[in-house]
Amino acid sequence: MDKETKLSRLARLGVYGFDTLEPLILAALITEDPLLLIGPSGTGKTFLLNTLSEALGLEHRHYNASLISFDDLVGFPFPDKAADGVKFLQTPATVWGAESVLIDEISRCKPEHQNRLFSLVCERRIQGVPLPKLRFRWAAMNPCSAEQSGAEDYAGSEALDPALADRFALFIQASDWAELTEDERLLVADPAGEGRIADDGGALQRDVKRWRGEFLRKLEDCPDEILRYVTIVVTALNSAGIRVSPRRSRLMTRSLFAASIVSGRLSEALCRLVLKSSLPHPCWGVTPSREAVAAAHRLGWDTVRDANRSWLPGFLAEKSLAGKLRILIDKCDSPDGGTQAVAEMLASETKERAAAFAFAVYPAAVEGKLPIGAEGINDLGRIASRFLSVDGAITWSERVTQTGTSHPDLVRYAAALEGLEGGRAERARQFFNGCLVRQCLVADPKAIEDEIQKCVELLKRKGLI
After folding, report:
1. What's the mean pLDDT in 18-32?
2. DSSP assignment, residue 63?
3. Quick check: helix, strand or coil at residue 62?
4. For the ranges 65-79, 124-138, 266-280, 441-455, which has the lowest average pLDDT?
5. Closest CA to 416 of 443, 446, 436
6. How many angstroms from the chain centroid is the CA of residue 85?
């Protein structure tokens, strides 16, 4: 095999540094959904997209959003006496007849032009007029202000409107010099490629046509494992406070399906790559919690591999703690599944709700009466012990004396204890004592106490305590 054959498809076109992202870029060519590249200046974003248009033989338009005027897009209006209306005098730069459009520097776009670009990106329309030939809508931007670090200051690069950003299917993070391999650095630095016309003998054009044909034929019967993966990760991310819109779930499914066609199979690494590049949050300067994204991916992939864990998304989406516990008891059939559910739940819930759940279920879990493995029991124990280890022999009146009757949390917790009797009252005092000592703020003590009681009642009905 010669050196040229060993190169990736993009490298054969003279584009370097995108090898690991190639399945995503090719997937965007297959779906024809909007694609956005993000990265520092000089990382080849514009070069990549212009090269793709050359290799695919497209009628291409390249606009700089920071300079563009409406006339640049549609041409100059003039009266159409025959039709008693207005026509546009076209130039080689107008968008009419374009098959691909690159909107460069989109984050530097004036607000009024961003609204006009919205319909171009989202609907393939301009001024309400359809653009039937337009297939590809691409854009590029520098990191917006909130994302900046390092020597370069992209002060003019502003956060995109979330509604516009959510229309892009994939967000490709271009690699800077530090992320390139030694071979890629040598290829990028080589001046021989400057000005070369991208030409692979039509190979990319033929492959994209073949892949897109397969994509369209199978789209009505998208593989169940892809649908389950996307549904689970979107549910998990939303439960963790990372909003992912219903529209984005569909775009993610399309991208993952197309990427699996390019790669020949669905793999854990491919799912992780598509998930990471499907989140629009960097467009408005936000980095989603890496831990939450990794946990959502792990949950989705484990469920794809093990259909018996299909109950996990419902467990995470359930709002009440007793509802979660019921699903765990009724649906979980393995300690490993229970351990994963506990880990995901404790990571995604607020501190007070995680504490309440651990406090309520740990006694049954540590006795082996719940389908939770040793690691999950330890996770519960680490939280529950903070409350169970507080001296329960100290009466509430003594706690009042120690803390002071004016302590605001004490006043609220005391109000939540009013009217409680027997074991329920003792349990609530123990929990709120722990909250005071461990400084775990409970916003609504009555609601949390009620959640704990419902969990305990469920465990009693099931004969687990």
Report:
1. 97
2. E
3. strand
4. 65-79
5. 446
6. 46
The residues with which 126 forms a beta bridge, in sequence order, are 129
Separation of CA 27 from chain center: 17
Quick: pLDDT tens for 377-401.
999 999 999 888 765 555 555 655 6
Residue whose tokens read 């999950």: 376
Extract the tokens encoding 42.
Answer: 């000089």
Question: So what's the pLDDT on residue 338?
Answer: 94
How many Cβ atoms are within 10 Å of 351's Cβ, its own excluded? 13
Residue 44 CA to residue 57 CA, distance in Å, equals 20
List the one residue out of 57, 89, 50 whose CA is nearest residue 73. 89
Kindly state the DSSP code that residue 159 receives in the 8-state scheme: P
User: For the purposes of burial, counting CB atoms within 10 Å of the CB of 267, is it exposed (0-12), middle (13-18) or buried (19 or more)?
Assistant: middle
Multiple choice CATH, 3-221, 3.40.50.300, 3.40.50.2300, 3.30.1340.30, 1.20.1640.10: 3.40.50.300
The per-residue pLDDT for 2 is 43
Other beta carbons within 10 Å of 42: 13
Q: Categorize the per-residue pLDDT at 82 as very low, low, confident or very high, splitting at 50, 70 and 90.
A: low
Tokens found for residue 39: 């990265």
Q: Using CA atoms, how far apart are residues 270 and 302, in angstroms rounded to an integer? A: 14
Strand partners, 140: 37
Q: Which amino acid type is present at position 245?
A: S
Instruction: Give the predicted TM-score (pTM) of the model.
Output: 0.76
- Mean predicted lDDT score pLDDT of the chain: 87
Give 70-112 as a DSSP string.
Answer: HHHHH-EEEEETTTTEEEEE--TTSSTT-SEEEEETGGG--HH
CA distance 444 to 423: 21
According to the model, what pLDDT value does residue 147 have? 46
- Condensed to tens digits (0 to 9), the pLDDT of residues 326-379 reads 999 999 989 998 998 999 899 888 899 999 999 999 999 999 999 999 999 999
Q: What is the 3-state secondary structure (H, E, C) of 183-238?
A: HHHHHHHCHHHCCCCCCCCCHHHHHHHHHHHHHHHHHHHCCHHHHHHHHHHHHHHH
Which residues in the chain are classed under CATH 3.40.50.300? 3-221
Would you say 343 and 380 are in contact if contact means Cβ atoms under 8 Å apart?
Answer: no
Quote the pLDDT of residue 5. 46
Per-residue pLDDT, 424: 93
SS3 label, residue 380: helix
